Amino acid sequence: MTFPMNARHVSEFLKCTALAAGIVAGASLAAAQQAAPAPQQAPPAPSIPLQTYSAPDGSATVGVPAGWKVTKGAYGVIQMSGPNGEAISLGNTLFVRNGSYQPGQKASGLIAMTLPNQATITQKVEAVWQMGAAASGDPTAHVSLISATPVPLGNIAQCGIFLGSQTGAKGAANWEMRFCSFPMDTNGIYKLFWLDAIIPASLAAQERATAEAVLSSYRPSVPTLQNLLRPETPPLPPMGWAPPGGGSGDSSTLYAEQQAQETSDCMDEGVIREEPEWQLPPYCR
Known about the structure:
This protein has six helices and eleven strands. By secondary structure, the chain is of the alpha+beta class. It has one domain (about 5-35, about 50-235): Protein Transport Mog1p, Chain A, CATH 3.40.1000.10. It starts with 6 loop residues before the first helix and ends in a 13-residue tail after the last helix. The relative contact order is 0.18.
């Protein structure tokens, strides 16, 4: 199964993203707003009650807080809104062509934008925000970057957990974003992947834990996650590469399958579940 993304899909997706979840760099809400350590005798914090939602096509599940409504669930992408203007968007991906960035550029077929692959992860997040803000039609949109926490997936992708704030026609809000930029393929195309949550500023302190619980509850199926992260052009095996365990078959296909499995494992554990670095498989780091 493939997940097509034509120009209309990209435009619709960016409008939803820009309006529902501010896209810019910053650090994790957990890192930036950690409470003081509780006494050792204190009971563990209660878990956030979530109701499991399954996308109709079976591509992903996620926990939904009471009073929230899922507005989209297909091809691994799940979007939801809360009763007070909260919004969460999960499983977002875009194809990007390596090249000079031009503000105001429009999506063309599969390619959502042109952006230098060597740009920093913060610059890539900012470019996506600028494109999304332009698609939303809100000329008052303004974002502030707070900080960024890198995710140690150096062998797989350039990733970070970001925190920021924004203002615009819908008022002030705080947001969290888990964002990754994947390696460029042989045709000069690479992929961006992210999850994000936006909460009105007046509710950010009390709803931070709920937003993070939802982000961490996102569970795309293994085939879905592999497809979301798969490059446009499959990678070629390096010289001398042999399938683990001496498997037989086309080496290019077997190598692509291995890379897809390792990439999805690393993203699931390192970005979605936020497992500590020492628990991540060696091939992730």
